[in-house]
Amino acid sequence: MIEVLLGLSIFSIISLTAYSVFSAGIRLNISIEKQARVLRESRGMLELMQGEFENMLFYDYSGSYKGKTALSGTGSSISFIKGSPLGLKVVRYYLGPDESMVHQGLKGPTASKNVSVLLESAKGGYRDCLIREERGFIDDLAGNSSQNEVEIIAKNIKKNGLRFFYGYLKGRLSDEIKWETTWKNDYIASMIRVEVDLISDHDKKTVTLTKDIFIPTGYLRPIETKQIN
Amino acid sequence: MFLNSTNNEQGSILLEALLSTVILSVSITIIIQSMISSLRAAKYTADYTVALILADNEINGLRVKRTSVCGVREESSFNKLDKKFICLLQTRQFDEPYKNGIEQVDLGIWWENGPKRNKILFSSYLLKTGHKFKADENLQ
By CA distance, what is B65's nearest residue in A? Predict the structure, then answer.
């Protein structure tokens, strides 16, 4: 009897230890996989933006569309022209809410019957999506948005976690770069900084990545250069 | 030989229990060590990605100025969350074939992950400050 009890207790200890070790391993694997997915997505997103920014084109609108510029941007969105086999395209990057996730606040069972009470329901929540919108050059001039091609590039971005900065020279005699959050000049910027706050599904930890993109066809000039209104 | 069979059987149970505990603890230690090393690898991958982005930013910072100054050796750390990364930038004259106009830029990013010190190194080539190609001179 004692031997059986001892055997059972040893067996249960061994089983419990083995189970906890392997379950910890599985949890670790899931956590690492989620972290790696966020990093993969962020690198893909930054490389896509870098490739497109480096190849952006200049177009002189001053003759017919005053106020329009080839590159225009704010702190949270950017719009520029790129070439494609089908002609010129206008590309825009911006953040949008993640419509695929619905966050609901539920109050648990409070009566004898298991009834849940919906307190609030909101789409999006703590995350935003990076959206890439592409439209033909003619459609852009005509203000026609029916032919827009919209795609989601990244999903693991913290709410309002994407910022664009545009490089200006600090002064005429300086070679230091000053970063501003708007661009409305009649030339292309030489440096664009992309700052993104990534959020992991697993631990809700935020990682900020900053990427400086050099545009060979752009110009680095002081901020006092006349801006298009 | 002097022990009777009953004593032998009693001792064997304890011995088996001890042996199984030792085997279990050794195997669990190995599994936990492999988990820790996979965690370290994941951390290294994340740091490596950040280091690559930082190195790319430094190179782009040089490219935007279009030229560099020869013989410069700079060591700097990054701000905000990237404090653990250290950047070392060194420029020197490039020997062949355009020794008067081009210089080599060596860029290294260092960071520490536990006791280990990691690094990535890059080399690029830039025009010297104030250098003009013959074609530019002819245009003027």
Answer: A175
Contact at 8 Å (CB) between A104 and A121? Answer: yes
Q: How far is B65 from chain A (nearest CA, A)?
A: 7
Q: In this structure, what token pair is assigned to residue B1?
A: 């030989």
d(CA A153, CA A12) in angstroms, rounded, equals 49
A24 in reach of chain B (CB within 8 A): yes
User: CB of B38 within 8 Å of any CB in chain A?
Assistant: yes
ipTM: 0.71
Q: Which of B28, B49, B57 sits opposite A210 (nearest CB)?
A: B57
CATH number of B43-139: 3.30.1300
Q: Where are the domains of chain A?
A: 2-98+129-214
Per-10-residue mean pLDDT for chain A, 229 residues long? 84 87 89 86 91 91 84 91 91 83 52 56 69 91 84 88 90 81 88 89 78 88 64
pTM passes above 0.90 = no
Whether B66 and chain A come into contact, CB under 8 Å, resolves to no
